[in-house]
């Protein structure tokens, strides 16, 4: 009976495997066949900028990988979006851009970069129009670059100023008996407040207020130029919720028209000088990216390597959403040893993470810097460990809306002794030496262990300060005065000397070219991620887990699930951390 059961299981397993292979073969044939088709752009077309998916700085799809676009379309690459807009600027077939987007899933610095690209597009004399059923603040920030902004008569516009929410877990720990033991550098006060307090300290409140105030001022400056409304008046509109209805938004100058979508389409027709019965040629961003990727703007035998480091910093190989020393150092070494590569630009978009991994990457940047110029471009956030790896470069660029700094280290170690006592668990340990039992989840932390970890924290913090002092050519005392876990906007980081220039990735590339004394040059992008097919096959085993996560989120709600993920992330951290002090959710 057991034999028959095993035989049946084996037969079913084989059938499933053959079925998967057959389906993949069909998909492969279909994709390969369709890949031969070219995207045709008709004359007098409008590029429709619909940003429907989350935006990453770099997706890293291989154009020769037939599964790349079919299996993994969760995110859009910022580099591809900016390149498409740049190509469209000089494309005679494209007469204008229509932004038809709701709920943009991008960071503030990414949004600012797209906005700058659209400003450059407008210098060609082509139009940019935008329409929305509703505008969140980030959506409106992008829309404010347009020549004309339109909204649905029953739509809504959110324009109220920025805010941030920080979750505190002290009561949760006491009620559950699961506690986070916190060990930190003495001056690094705000990093662990959520675990040791139920409310925000005045010092922390002040730094967050100053941070989001600086970000808001950068947004207002851009919106003011786009809409010709003084920043002071924009603040009045925000304070009085002067854009809360479409009519109010139009009266205050935030909008140019309150119309239905079919009326907006007619305005596009008018801009194209075509009749009501003529076909309007709208080109989707995805289709245009296929065309624009075939057009190389920067050409030359000499190359500048652009290495994208995005996500949390964790020890290991790394991937599209995780910075590991594996793929990042491999990319740095490859760029360093390539004679055609004359300079390196490291794009950092990270809240930090493992201090050990940060230092390993920092060392590789130092070695590369001995052979060729290295310039850093900061994205949405380059804080703590993200700043750690950036400080090894020759020059650092950041967007005005970049969040950076947070120079500090800490350790959080879960402890379940309270829960164990409540539910009747008693743990006993046996060891061969005095310190052989290092730490137990089920016992209160000993003073000896705490002192041992504190020693490691202090050592790592001093190393971090040395890297900052060396990289920024300042004293240890000056580095310490800029540290203590304080986070800064790009504008304030420039003022404090933590970065060299305000600018985007393109500015950083231009500077790298100047430092390497290059005229014409091309770009080489790193790292090379696993192919779409490889990631698909790896994810087959994790499909069940993803389904469970989706069910949990649906059951308890998005907000509760977000809290659960934060707690889970903290519980899984290993080693000394150089990361953002908390999840800074700016709305």
Automatic annotation (TrEMBL):
InterPro entries: ClpP/crotonase-like_dom_sf (IPR029045), Pept_S49_pIV (IPR004634), Pept_S49_SppA (IPR004635), Peptidase_S49 (IPR002142), S49_SppA_67K_type_N (IPR047217), S49_SppA_C (IPR047272). GO terms for molecular function: peptidase activity. The chain crosses the membrane at residues 7-32. Its main location: membrane. It is found in: Membrane. The keyword Plastid does not apply. Belongs to the peptidase S49 family. This is Protease-4. The lineage of its organism: Bacteria, Pseudomonadati, Bacteroidota, Flavobacteriia, Flavobacteriales.
